[in-house]
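Need residues for this backbone.
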């Protein structure tokens, strides 16, 4: 249970009064063992900063040992709960205060020790780096930091960990709560920023660890450093397989690389700065396009989502750009005053307010071409006005083919896989008891064939419906065509008019739903237009879905009996 405890903290944080008891029950007391280990490492009275103090349980224990403790948390309800449990002992040096990792309310070189437990996994990679840099500045020379967090265990335990984490992430999605982040690359940051590990303790096969870090300060390190990830391969067989993975898994899996600064060639302080997402597919495409060009490639933390979808989903906006520039220190390694953003990021980046949100933002923004393959020409010519090829995203045949493949895979993986498996088991059971013919198991494969044909139809005739930008209208057209085509297929397989009629509503729904999903693959409709249509689409979709499931179930029963 401890393996997914930190994931479930998001729900517990909504209930500060019962947070500590429920978290202790959830972790089976491991959080208490973490506190005990931290207290054992504090040998003499210290000036301590606790970051993410929650309800103040550990801060109170440290203060009662004679330490001078400042405990901060960004959650006002947590601070209020901690204040209610303030120790009654006299001369206790304990102060609770609102504060965050990006703006620690303390002076530089003022603390002997920084403590943070079960907070690190709430931070994204850049936030973890910012926290480490700010902690380095806050600590006195040779100061220490103790961190407890959720880590990925090794060996077979990693499989069990991922299964349990997946289950709890689904629960959080149902509760509409954001999940925590795996502390995946954290150990890579320590040495470049200026820390070394001096002690550690593990529980539950390494899924919960406490580490003690020491601030490193010498003649060559007067301020915290910056972390830069190693260059990830973008050529060869494995990279090509990564591209196919992104395409053939329906692009529903977030496939992130470490956000940060990467190098194309051997860039210097005068080389251009290309900004993109930290989606593996995007990274490979950009780096391949920059072949032979010296450039800095800054991958923002888009959570492993491509530029277009990330910009529309608030994962590639001003916040992420400002964070990436600050966390990487890219302004310190270049004399360039302009960064080049992908044009498709314009839906998330609000340039007019960039300077007001970050007055010290060191760059001007220039939008590059819409596709990475045009980067070499753009960098060479720097046209005052981009050509149509550079600025217009046409939904070409190759793009429609990829959309058909990824959406087909999406439907099968995320919607039809489990129902198909259940239907197959039911049919198999009936066949084994000689209730139906064994060849009727092919019904499951036929349903998958419907999905493939539906997406193929949309792919082929999509250009014909360019006379309208409304996806509901397109969906009605495709749905009607799909009814006729899939009905013909069913007639060839079964020659049954009742089954054909009972399945026709499902044929319509399949195309109608798939059409709106295509809005995620084409740039022909803006996000605002989709948002305007979606309430009406959702109502129509739900009505048609309910009717189609009922009629399809009756049709399947008819098919099995007759």
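Answer:
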């Amino acid at each position: 249970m401890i393996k997914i405890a930190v994931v479930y903290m998001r729900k517990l944080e909504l209930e500060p009064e019962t947070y500590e008891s429920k978290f202790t029950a959830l972790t089976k007391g491991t959080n208490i063992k973490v506190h005990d280990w931290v207290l054992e490492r504090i040998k003499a009275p210290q000036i301590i900063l606790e970051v993410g103090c929650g309800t103040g349980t550990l801060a109170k224990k440290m203060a009662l040992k004679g330490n001078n403790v400042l405990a901060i948390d960004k959650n006002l309800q947590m601070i209020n709960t901690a204040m209610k449990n303030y120790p009654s002992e006299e001369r206790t040096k304990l102060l609770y205060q609102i504060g965050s990792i990006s703006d620690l309310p303390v002076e530089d070189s003022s603390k002997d020790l920084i403590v943070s437990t079960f907070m690190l996994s709430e931070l994204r990679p850049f936030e973890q780096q910012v926290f480490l840099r700010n902690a380095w500045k806050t600590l006195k020379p040779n100061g220490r930091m103790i961190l407890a967090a959720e880590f990925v265990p090794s060996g077979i335990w990693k499989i069990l960990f991922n299964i349990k984490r997946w289950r709890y992430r689904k629960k959080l999605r149902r509760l509409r709560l954001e999940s925590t982040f795996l502390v995946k690359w954290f150990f890579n940051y320590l040495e470049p920023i200026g820390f070394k590990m001096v002690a550690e303790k593990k529980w539950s096969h390494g899924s919960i660890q406490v580490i003690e870090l020491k601030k490193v300060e010498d003649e060559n390190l007067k301020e915290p450093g910056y972390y830069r990830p190693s260059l990830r391969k973008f050529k060869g067989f494995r990279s090509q397989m990564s591209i196919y993975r992104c395409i053939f898994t329906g692009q529903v899996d977030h496939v992130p690389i470490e956000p940060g600064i990467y190098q194309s060639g051997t860039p210097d302080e005068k080389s251009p700065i290309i900004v993109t997402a930290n989606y593996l597919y995007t990274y490979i495409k950009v780096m391949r396009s920059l072949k032979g060009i010296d450039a800095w490639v800054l991958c923002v933390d888009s959570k492993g989502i491509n530029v277009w979808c990330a910009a529309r989903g608030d994962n590639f906006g001003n916040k992420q750009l400002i964070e990436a520039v600050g966390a990487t220190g890219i302004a310190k390694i270049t004399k360039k005053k302009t960064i080049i953003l992908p044009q498709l990021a314009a839906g998330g980046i609000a340039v007019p307010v960039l300077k007001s949100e970050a007055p010290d933002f060191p760059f001007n923004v220039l939008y590059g071409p819409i596709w990475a393959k045009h980067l070499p020409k753009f960098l060479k010519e720097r046209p005052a006005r981009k050509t149509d090829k550079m600025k217009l995203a046409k939904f070409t045949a190759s793009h429609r083919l990829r959309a058909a493949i990824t959406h087909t895979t999406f439907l099968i993986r995320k919607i039809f896989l489990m129902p198909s498996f259940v239907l197959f088991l039911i049919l198999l059971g009936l066949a084994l008891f000689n209730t139906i013919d064994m060849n009727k198991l092919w019904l499951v494969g036929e349903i998958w064939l419907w999905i493939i044909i539906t997406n193929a139809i949309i792919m082929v005739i999509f250009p014909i419906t360019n006379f309208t930008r409304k996806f509901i209208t397109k969906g009605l057209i495709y749905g009607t065509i799909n009814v006729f085509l899939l009905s013909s297929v069913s007639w060839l397989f079964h020659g049954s008019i009742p089954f054909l009629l009972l399945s026709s509503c499902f044929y319509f729904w399949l195309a109608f739903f798939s059409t709106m999903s295509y809005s995620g693959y084409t740039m022909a409709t803006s996000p605002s237009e989709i948002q305007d249509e979606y309430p009406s689409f959702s109502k129509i979709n739900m009505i048609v879905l309910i009717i189609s499931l009922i009629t399809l179930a009756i049709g399947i029963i008819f098919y099995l009996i007759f």
